[in-house]
Amino acid sequence: MPSTIDPTVKAQILPVKRTGPFGTGASFTLANRVVRILWAVVWLTCARWTPGFLNPWRLFLLTCFGARVSSHSAIASSARIWLPSNLQIGARSTLGPGVDCYNMALITIGERTVVSQRAFLCAGTHDIRDADFQLVAKPITIGNDVWIAAEAFVAPGVNVGDGTVLGARACAFGNLSDWTVFRGNPAVACKVRVWSTPRHIAPDCD
User: In sequence order, what are the residues at sequence separation of 6 or more whose Cβ sits closer than 8 angstroms to the Cβ of residue 47?
Assistant: First the structure.
């Protein structure tokens, strides 16, 4: 996965030296902010209250704002998506209730992947070497057949390999290898994931 900053995203992030340090000025361009305001209003009024069976309607709204989502994916009405155009999600994948998709940079999710309730996918951070605390955005890639369990955290620039399990409340600050179960903060490998039946997700770590 590319760990460098997407040049399109970089162009939308304003230099903090010009706008004001420590959040005293705008972090993104006016165009970016206008789109996000419109999106927030549309999601709140047209999707946030919708029951599960209106998932196709929620997917339609996301695509209208530039998201690349499979028609066979599922997005909970309580999920928070910062900018739809920075979301790509494959078939039979799910963003569960309360998931925070903080996609300041592109977040790509493969097929048959579950991001469980209140997980946090965070593609934005700050440069701690900069006295003005410059905002930085780095893409996240999550592979196929992955399970990001409840309240887990995925940091900016992380690549989650195919078949990986990130346990409940675990925190991934570095790349996670394929077909491995991780737990803890910071997340560490605790076992190899093996399917006993097709599409079976391994149980919690012992």
Answer: 54, 57, 58, 61, 77
For residue 129, being part of any structural domain is answered with: yes
pTM: 0.88
Q: What is the CA radius of gyration of the chain?
A: 17
Tell which residue, 43, 44, 181, 160, has the closest CA to residue 93. Answer: 160
pLDDT above 80 (res 13):
yes
Q: What is the SS3 assignment for 64?
A: helix
Among residues 199, 181, 197, the alpha carbon closest in space to that of 189 is found at: 181
Strands 120-122 and 153-154: parallel
Domain around 66: 7-192
Strand, helix or coil for residue 137: strand
Domain assignment of residue 1, yes or no = no
Cβ atoms 143, 176 nearer than 8 A: no
Q: Which two tokens stand for residue 187?
A: 């997340």
Cβ atoms within 10 Å of 178's Cβ, excluding its own = 15
3-state secondary structure at position 77 = coil
- Structural domains in the chain (count): 1
Q: Between 168 and 196, name the one with better pLDDT.
A: 168
Token digits for 182?
A: 């991780």
